[in-house]
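Listing S7. Sequence submitted for prediction.
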Amino acid sequence: MTYRIIDTHCHLDIIQEQGQDIGISLEKAHNAGVEKILQIGIDLDSSLRAQSISKEFQTKKQEGFLIPKVYYSIGCHPTETHEFPKSKEIEGLILENAHDENLSAIGEIGIDLYHTADSESKQIDILEQFLDLSERTKIPVVIHSREGFETTYEVLAKWKTRAHGVIHCFTYDYEKGKKFVDLGFYVSFSGILAFNSARDIQDAAKKLPLDAMLIETDAPFLAPPPHRGKRNDSGNMPIILDKMFSLRNELNSKVEDQLYLNSEKFLNRKAYYHA
């Protein structure tokens, strides 16, 4: 059975660096029912690559290739501390391309207290810089938050209704997810959702409003079982969707359709606002 899926967070360039050509990744995605992919930028160079990948494969699609449509983001990842001095250049790249319909998001940006806790204050400064830009441009943000819920939440709460976006690769519990949703953010689930040990994450996916959720691979990272520990790609999206089916009470068709609709809204810069 073929699904209709959108991979809302993928690093096609890193997959290629690890040995799989982007064309192969897109062919595998297409065969799995993935119709659209958001290619993520994490620093200035990768953001430029993301833009280039999007342009290259729009052209190939126009020539008749059966591949997913590739959108892109421009960001400054909280662990890429060497890139912080380039934040104004990254901001300029966003402003320069703000009217490009294939630029879907600002990010990854966020807070990481697992890898780079010593730079927390600077991470906050960078995050606030890009949240301000999100408010000005109405372009949503892709938030990376690892072992930094309190800091992430405190910063995002200042921008409630002013900036919007998604908490990508959600790794917290239901109560924390509900707090993000109440701020008007989507919550996105990766292959971790299918890990046997991911009880808190599965509980969140079971209980959060269906219209507030997205799914993603974060490829080449976090491949779901039975591929855990191997290079991930968008071809594994059906495994994540199947796991979501097993957790929700709605009909599978309703889950599939709603996740697709949510993802389309996000790619088209539409906000989720919790009623």
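Caption to Listing S7: primary sequence and predicted structure tokens for the chain studied. The chain has one domain: 5-267. Residues 5-267 form a domain with the TIM Barrel fold (CATH 3.20.20.140).
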